[in-house]
Amino acid sequence: MVPTFMIMPSMACQASCKYCFGPYQGPMMSKDIMTQSAEFIKGVANQTQPSAIRIIFHGGEPLLLPLDRWRFLLTSLCESLTDYPLSFSVQSNLWRFDEEYAQLFAKFHVHVASSLDGPEIICDAQRGDGYFQKTMAGIRLAQRYGLLSGVIATITDQSKDQVQEVVNFFDKEELSVLLHEAQTGKRPGAESYTINPKDFGEALLRVLPWYVDDAQHIFIRNYHQFASGLLRGNPRVCSLRDCLGMFLAIAPDGNISSCQRFAGLREYVLGNVRSKPSLEQLFDSEPALRQKDREERVRKECAECGFVHICHGGCYHNAVFAGDGIIDPQCVSIRMIYSYLQEKMLDELTAQCEPKYRQLGMR
Ligand code: SF4
Ligand code: SF4
């Protein structure tokens, strides 16, 4: 499997989203680690010979890294990885995204995704006063430069009954959105935002008929991920697959983990870019073997579930930090959505076949 690389230029974040599960503080990546990261990526690419290299910049908040260091980072990557087509994207709250960043990102074709929880009143109630205005300004600028790819909207226990308002907003703004469940965050009081998996499943199912029949300009990625799982047996999103090997995430200190969500956690470090580990070394490390073992245990524990091949126990991080270490508590919402879509698809198929059956005198 060819991994997608994640680079976290900064673990810190200046926003104060009430449900945040990240560390929201920490170091910036040095130029030395940037250079070493580029060399490490080149080593993995030479091993895997990908048709293209995909790099996502994540955080913390990646734009806390000053512009001159961004220029250095992008230039280092481009100079080291000349043998491969590169695709860059960044996940950012966009508060610091200005004309200079926009021009730099346009030059290096860095696509921009952001995080916004819907209309101002809903968004700021859970992400903090002023979040909406600052992020929307960044979104508008990214749109002007043709760089915006979509947003992630977090649905919390507080906003679950307003999910229709949330999607109406994105429909009006013509934005592609991924609805994300608020997990158990690390800030004091975060628990009151954590959404129960059943409530999250119900929220997604509540807006689905509207999405199918009435939505005009919105693309809600969740539904397509599930539909792709059912129709192709191969969902693309990591949380419905065995994710070990899909990503290699590089933290500001050069530590490598299997997912950006594990950055900063010692017990999930697979290696460090300074020692240029091979894929074999990374995947033979103790944390990787633990994750592999979890994948095996899912197959046993979920053996009776008809969706195991298109769910794989859900997100490993959720399973570890909100579940029993094996099964993602979102199992509940995953089953709800797969079951609903499966039934709808069968109904649709039956309705289409019925006239033919009758014509042939069959029942
Ligand atoms: S731990 Fe969760 S978020 Fe991270 S790659 Fe795996 S499924 Fe995706
Ligand atoms: S839906 Fe639940 S039971 Fe089924 S495979 Fe996923 S986690 Fe396991």
Going across the major beta sheet, what is the strand order?
7-6-5-4-3-2-1-8-9-10
Bound ligands: iron/sulfur cluster
Strand content: 5-15%
Percent in helix: 40-55%
> Which regions have little confidence, pLDDT < 50, spanning 5+ residues?
none
Rg, nearest Å: 21 Å
> Mean pLDDT across all residues, rounded?
94
Shape: globular
What is the helix/strand order?
EHEHEHEHHEHEHEHEEEHHHH
Task: List the SSEs and their pairings.
Blueprint: E1 4-10, H1 31-48, E2 53-59, H2 67-80, E3 86-92, H3 99-108, E4 110-115, H4 120-127, H5 131-144, E5 148-155, H6 163-173, E6 176-181, H7 197-213, E7 219-220, H8 221-232, E8 247-250, E9 255-257, E10 271-272, H9 279-283, H10 286-301, H11 316-322, H12 331-359
Parallel strand pairs: 1-2, 1-8, 2-3, 3-4, 4-5, 5-6, 6-7
Antiparallel strand pairs: 8-9, 9-10
Bound molecules: iron/sulfur cluster (2 copies).
The site of one iron/sulfur cluster (SF4) has 11 residues, from helix 12.
Explain this structure.
With 363 residues, this protein is α/β, with parallel strands linked by helices. It is 44% helix and 14% strand. The protein contains twelve helices and ten strands. Strands 7-6-5-4-3-2-1-8-9-10 form a ten-stranded mixed β-sheet. β5, α6 and β6 form a beta-alpha-beta unit. It is globular. Residues 238-239, 243, 246-247, 259, 261, 315-317 line the site of one iron/sulfur cluster.
